[in-house]
Amino acid sequence: MPTDDEDARERFEALFTDHYPELIRFAGRRVGRDSAADIVAGTFLIAWRRFAEMPADHARAWLYATARHVIANELRSRNRRERLSARLETTEAGWAEDASGPVGEQLRVQRVLAGLSAMDQEVLRLSEWEDLDVAEMAIVLGCTRTAAKVRLHRARRRFAARLLAAEQPVPNQRVTPPVVTRSRSQA
């Protein structure tokens, strides 16, 4: 008969096997492939330490929420390092964008997505890239299902409007000088 420790280890190993690949993709899209493994390792370390607190029926969403917090910590650390580098003036002059990377439509979508608020970006990524349903998104975002559904609807609407605006060519507009009128006291 397995002990509680053996049972917990087996459940954790199953959780790891089931969700590791999708968490790697989730983290990779946010912090890059180089840091994704560290993010997921940190996520599963927290999951192991807090395994008894993890809701069994929403383990996937709990892992995404935890990964999201680990990613936020990583991004804050990166920002601190970047500010320090800028202060010390040790950063390179600039990076040339690789022309062989994503082009056309992907770049346009990325530009439009980057123009949205951080919350809109996160809601759209959770829905479209991570394929989380509204209930799972609510757990990850720490809000109600209704709030998650409303956030998703509004984010999609804003994204669609900006994407449509990005497609429209800017018409040539003539700038007409303002009409200057004299008041009676100047006449």
TrEMBL record:
InterPro entries: RNA_pol_sigma-70-like, RNA_pol_sigma-70_dom, RNA_pol_sigma70_r2, RNA_pol_sigma70_r4_t2, RNA_pol_sigma_r2, RNA_pol_sigma_r3/r4-like, WH-like_DNA-bd_sf. The keyword DNA-binding applies. Residues 15-81 form the RNA polymerase sigma-70 region domain. One of its GO terms (biological process) is DNA-templated transcription initiation. GO terms for molecular function: DNA binding; sigma factor activity. Keywords: DNA-binding, Sigma factor, Transcription, Transcription regulation. It comes from the Bacteria. Residues 107-158 form the RNA polymerase sigma factor 70 region 4 type domain. The keyword Plastid does not apply. Pfam families: Sigma70_r2, Sigma70_r4_2. PANTHER family: RNA POLYMERASE ECF-TYPE SIGMA FACTO, RNA POLYMERASE SIGMA FACTOR HI_1459-RELATED. Belongs to the sigma-70 factor family. ECF subfamily. This is RNA polymerase ECF family sigma subunit. It comes from Pseudosporangium ferrugineum. The lineage of its organism: Bacteria, Bacillati, Actinomycetota, Actinomycetes, Micromonosporales.
